[in-house]
Amino acid sequence: MSLNIEEIRAMFPVLHQEVNGKPLIYFDNAATTQKPQSVLDALTGYYEHDNSNIHRGAHTLADRATRFYEETREGVRDFINAKETAEVIFTKGTTESINLVASSYGRKFITKGDEIIISTLEHHSNIVPWQMLCEEKGAILKVIPINDRGEILFEEFDKMLSDRTKFVSIVHVSNALGTINPVKKIIKLAHQVGAKVLLDGAQSTNHLEIDVQDLDCDFLAFSAHKLYGPTGLGILYGKRSILETMPPYQGGGEMIKEVTFAKTTYNDIPFKFEAGTPNIADVIAFQKALDFISCFGKANIKKHEDELLDHANIAFGQIKGFVPVGTAAEKVSVLSFNIMGMHPFDVGVMLDANGIAVRTGHHCTQPLMQRLGLEGTVRASFSVYNTKKEIDQMAISLSKIAKIKNK
Amino acid sequence: MSSIKEIQDEIIEEFGILGDDKESTIYYIMELGSQLPEFPEDQRVEENIIKGCQSKVWLTTVENGDKIKYLADSNTDITKGLISLLIRVLSDRTPQEIIKAELAFIDKIGMGNIIGSQRSNGLTAMIKQMKLYALAYQAKQNV
């Protein structure tokens, strides 16, 4: 099916505005995607009609809000093909999901001398929680190296694995470069030495079909706001057998079965990990974002995004001084680059003056930038509502900017 | 030599000609940056980097009688342009003039809108550092 992009664009009110006197071209989708009207309506609709605290309420509104909230949990289960809804935990973002695992699973099961493996491509949110854990436990953090195209060296990973490897936490798709990692192979090898695997799916869940049972990952962390949903909402998927062995992450309401001053018994999963009043409105609105994706089909969305990436590679590739960063064979629609002789910040500010929103800097991947010998990059990332015409417009602006230093 | 206020008025007038055209304004700022005098290589050291800027900024001073001359550089052209404006206003002045200078031109030319809030913080850090140099120089004069 070929998508009608104009029809899709009409669903996103934010796109229809001018920035600095030019029509907005939004190419910062890897940072956050825009939200369709249905998500915005669900947010206001919840507060207008259903606002109530969920679970345990004896009244109609509480019951309705609870039902909608739990319907999203089922929607997420279906979205990632988890076995059951109890394996879907709502958090405030990918970062919190990873921290939850590092804190709860890590504190209980990681001990002195154990090894945790991450890769050079990781976002800071999949580095720092593990560094903190390693520091606390005397465990060792190992890092899979990459080649100059931004692909992990699989054979190096293979060599790193041993009976000391207890955990592998790896990004599915690199936020800075768009590289798709061969995670299924990684998970399989890690499991052979008995290690558990967390996938950072912040940048993959919006582009790739995700089936946690087929992948066999132990945990998957991702964020709603990169999937056309609201900010402040993340998901942690975990296998029941593992989640049940983990201690709670935070204490409070919702996560208990019974509290006395002598002892507290904890609730069952997923509620054990959802202490306090959750982000009800955003969870409920997120279902509309999932509906949006399933309405158009992830495969169709990806096909369109891939075409945009190919088009951008050709259009920008002709610009004198354009240097692509991250040229992996398997990529999603993220195009990182530099302009010779220019700082990425300056390129970003000049693109903004032309109404074009991109991200510049280290993209929260400083170790990756150090490996590539760069201060940062300019990153254009494309989504379903972007068009080839917008890319052509950016190519014109970029060409003018590049000429300042590349005559 | 024109007063701090007169130079600021000149800058406000120059930017006024560019109007609301953000693109032309940025090109102009970069052009100003390219005219910044060469920064001495031996001063490109960690101690001279201003903390609080997203891009790298080096700042140092040369004493010129009772006046302070500023030398600065950055790895980004827009930031170089911003520094060149500050130098144009504050360099070759006495510490007393620098300390009490009110830099109204920054708001008047709408710098916050041009460079964004993060870079504005960097600009504030640069001004603070320039004033700190002046305070240190004044303290030394009073010994």
Helix and strand topology:
The complex is a heterodimer of chains A (407) and B (143).
Chain A: H1 5-9, E1 18-19, E2 22-23, E3 25-26, H2 37-50, H3 60-80, E4 88-91, H4 94-109, E5 115-119, H5 128-137, E6 140-144, H6 154-160, E7 165-171, H7 183-192, E8 196-200, H8 212-215, E9 219-223, E10 234-238, H9 240-243, E11 256-259, E12 264-266, H10 280-296, H11 298-317, E13 322-325, E14 334-339, H12 344-353, E15 356-357, E16 359-361, H13 366-372, E17 377-381, H14 388-403
Parallel strand pairs in A: 3-15, 5-6, 5-7, 7-8, 8-9
Antiparallel strand pairs in A: 1-2, 4-10, 9-10, 11-12, 13-14, 14-17, 16-17
Chain B: H1 4-18, H2 22-34, E1 57-64, E2 67-74, H3 77-90, H4 95-100, H5 105-108, H6 111-142
Helix pairs in contact in B: 1-3, 2-3, 3-6
Protein name (chain B): SufE family protein
Domain Fe-S metabolism associated (chain B): 20-131
Family (chain B): Belongs to the SufE family.
Structure description:
The complex is a heterodimer of chains A (407) and B (143). Chain A contains 14 helices and 17 strands. In chain A, strands 4-10-9-8-7-5-6 form a seven-stranded mixed beta sheet, sandwiched between helices. A four-stranded antiparallel beta sheet of chain A has the order 13-14-17-16, covered by helices on one side. With 407 residues, chain A is α/β, with parallel strands linked by helices. In chain A, helix 2 packs antiparallel against helix 10 and helix 3 (60-80) packs across helix 10 (280-296). Chain A folds into two domains: 5-29 and 297-403, Alpha-Beta Complex (Aspartate Aminotransferase, domain 1); 52-294, Type I PLP-dependent aspartate aminotransferase-like (Major domain) (Aspartate Aminotransferase, domain 2). Chain A has helices at 5-9, 37-50, 60-80, 94-109, 128-137, 154-160, 183-192, 212-215, 240-243, 280-296, 298-317, 344-353, 366-372, 388-403, and strands spanning 18-19, 22-23, 25-26, 88-91, 115-119, 140-144, 165-171, 196-200, 219-223, 234-238, 256-259, 264-266, 322-325, 334-339, 356-357, 359-361, 377-381. The mean pLDDT of chain A is 96. Chain B has one domain (4-142): Alpha-Beta Complex (Sufe protein. Chain: A), CATH 3.90.1010. Helix content of chain B is 59%, strand content 11%. The two termini of chain B are 28 Å apart. In chain B, 36% of the residues are buried. The model of chain B has no long low-confidence stretch (mean pLDDT 89). Classes of the chains: A alpha/beta (407), B mainly alpha (143). The A-B interface holds A 20-21, 342-343, 345-346, 349-350, 352-354, 361, 375, 404 and B 20-23, 25-26, 30, 54-55, 75-79, 115-116, 119.
